[in-house]
Design brief:
The chain contains six helices and seven strands, in the order H-H-E-H-E-H-E-E-H-E-H-E-E. With 186 residues, it is an alpha/beta fold.
Length: 186
């Protein structure tokens, strides 16, 4: 099989990898992440969906906080979660207005229906248990959920199918490397 696909890897290996590259993470990924986030911002504007100061936003798989800090202009309450502790340390240093916690998507320690917006930017393919991660995102979200899914992941179609089964997709956008799904709770 000739494929440039990324297969599922043991989550401990993934976490260790991200901890090892933590210092250079933003140099490697910031431009690409900001391009996706600007596309998401445009899609939300097109849909007339606004993130305002009274909203709460959760960023699942936030890494070093690039995708959490991006929304600082909205003045909303922002929380980022990631299982890689070294990335969370960087996020905490770079963003005094956000809150960051070392936590996996499959076991979010926050209240039900707490967040107006939940984002998961190029992270869902790293979930140890996809169904549990999606279930937790569903549990903590009130309304809008935004996914960016890397197209080269071997189970890309399965991930998209599970998102579409669990959420109402209101906008789909195909980028160069990712599919972006803007969703609502069913």
């Amino acid at each position: 099989m000739d494929c440039d696909c990324i297969t599922r890897i043991n989550p401990i290996i993934i976490m260790n990898y991200y901890n090892e590259i933590a210092e250079g993470y933003e140099e490697l990924h910031e431009d690409e992440q900001l391009a996706k986030l600007n596309a998401i911002k445009s899609l939300l504007e097109e849909l007339k969906i606004e993130i305002s100061p009274n909203h709460k936003l959760l960023d699942v798989g936030c890494g070093s906080g690039i995708s959490t800090r991006f929304w600082d202009f909205t003045e909303c309450e922002r929380i980022g979660l990631d299982p890689a502790d070294k990335l969370i340390e960087i996020a905490q240093k770079k963003d005094i207005n956000g809150q960051y916690f070392v936590e996996p998507a499959e076991n979010i320690s926050l209240e039900d229906k707490l967040f107006d917006f939940v984002t998961c930017i190029t992270a869902i393919h790293n979930f140890e248990n996809l169904d549990m991660g999606i279930s937790e995102i569903k549990r903590v979200s009130k309304n809008i959920i935004i996914f960016s899914i890397l197209k080269t992941v071997i189970d890309f179609k399965n991930i998209v199918r599970k998102i579409k089964t669990n959420f109402q997709v209101i906008k789909e956008f195909e980028g160069d490397k990712d599919s972006i799904l803007i969703c609502k709770k069913l």
